Automatic annotation (TrEMBL):
One GO BP annotation of this record: secondary metabolic process
InterPro entries: ACMSD, Amidohydro-rel, Metal_Hydrolase
Coiled-coil residue windows: none
Domain Amidohydrolase-related: 105-354
Protein name: 2-amino-3-carboxymuconate-6-semialdehyde decarboxylase
Keyword Repressor: no
Alphabetical keyword list: Lyase
Amino acid sequence: MRIIDADGHVAENPTLAVEAIKRWPQHVTASTDGTPRLIIEGRKYPEDRGPGAGCPPLHGISTAPGINCRSTEGVLGDADRDHIDTMVLYPSLGLCAPSLEDPEFAAGFARLYNQWIADYCAPSKGRLRGVAVAPIEHGQVAIDVMREAKDLGLVATLVPPALKTRNLDHPDLDPFYAAAVELEMPLGIHGAPGIHLPKIGVDRFTNYIQVHCISFPFDQMTAMTALVSGGVFDRHPGLRVAFLEAGVGWVPFFIDRLHEHFEKRGDWIEHGWQRDPQEYVQAGNIYVTCEPEEPILPGVIDVLGADFIMFASDYPHWDGEWPESTKHLRTRPDISDDVRAKIGGLNAQRFYGLN
């Protein structure tokens, strides 16, 4: 069985930050508080205090013995130890890209990051595959950057769960979605607290652990509501979107909740959904990552099938299970080998267009 990690992360080594500081000293500076964070456009990345606090910068990486996540060679060795054949790497610091406000700087930073992650993955001979960032708040340039990222060999583009003044069903985003379909570029919905994206529910908490409990599922529910009920998949039927880092247990509940609203009051949304929400799962518009130890996984498969579920490790972050993140996937007795192969790699291979 080929195992593809559909949502790992790169722990960007200092070369990215050093280059950003060199290119844009007016926008990017090193923190003076002794922590490994940056001050970007006057904001702390990450911001680990106040409402919606993010992860303190010294505590984001797993402390598992032997983890070696700062170089291509180290990540490949860690993948071998965890029985992972291919890793799709989302950003860590690079998650900041959609929140950057100066259009020229945002585009420049996205291009820098995309070239950096392409170069980082290049020596792996296809085992590490990078995900692009784009200045999605800034219109046409986001499409240009995504097109360049496709040429670099990046396999998806990161999209935040919501924009600062718009949800993901806003008509202004239709050209971006159309370009993603044209490029055969899937989109990965990925938020994170503390990086100055819109606060969805987390503004009620200042303790990072409380924030972390709700930030990822609330983010994904918000994004799914916009994309499904807002008719995005009807306007762009070839669009593939992954909802990431919230597990899969929430999906049957939420698809059923969307179904009820579609059935009873769907016509209240002008230019909205044209099909029952479950049909977007069946059509291949919606993919979701799981943690393979989730007790509810067999129930999700019974309700919605196994063709939309992808394994994810969240390597090398503190809440991952490395070096045993694939253990339950490989050994749990309550899923069939056919389902195991789909979740382990076949679905991600299809979603990301991997060889």
